[in-house]
Specification:
single chain, mainly beta, seven-stranded mixed beta sheet, four-stranded antiparallel beta sheet
Length: about 120
């Protein structure tokens, strides 16, 4: 399974971006997530979605601003980011679990990772 993240870029504070993660293999039934890593910081959980897409969870700092979604027919997982803030600046990574599990914020439960896409929010 290979994951390809895209959609990053430079945006002003208050703006929006939509990240997309395309998988070479099946995504349906597997938990998917988005993580981010800012310069000098550890990678952190952003959002996760269950295999069916019914259940979702977010880190507190993005709740109400970010929305994770998936299309299992197309093997894609998206992250819509609105009301972006400078502190959202980071490299964003998509990930897929290695086994059939429900959504999880635990990085160690994800076996497959995309290459990362840079998001920069200017003030």
């Amino acid at each position: 399974v290979q994951l390809q993240a895209s959609g990053g870029g430079l945006v002003q504070a208050g703006g929006s971006l939509r990240l997309s993660c395309a998988a070479s293999g099946r995504t349906g039934g597997y938990a998917a997530g988005w993580f981010r890593q800012a310069p000098g910081k550890a990678r952190e959980f952003v959002a996760t979605i269950s295999g069916t897409g019914i259940s979702k969870d977010y880190t507190d700092s993005v709740k109400g601003r970010f929305t994770i979604s998936r299309d299992n027919a197309r093997n894609t997982v998206d992250l819509q980011m609105n009301s972006l803030k400078p502190e959202d600046t980071a490299v964003y990574y998509c990930a897929r679990s290695g086994s059939y599990i429900s959504m999880t914020p635990e990085e160690t439960r994800y076996a497959y990772w995309g290459q990362g896409t840079q998001v920069t929010v200017s003030s």
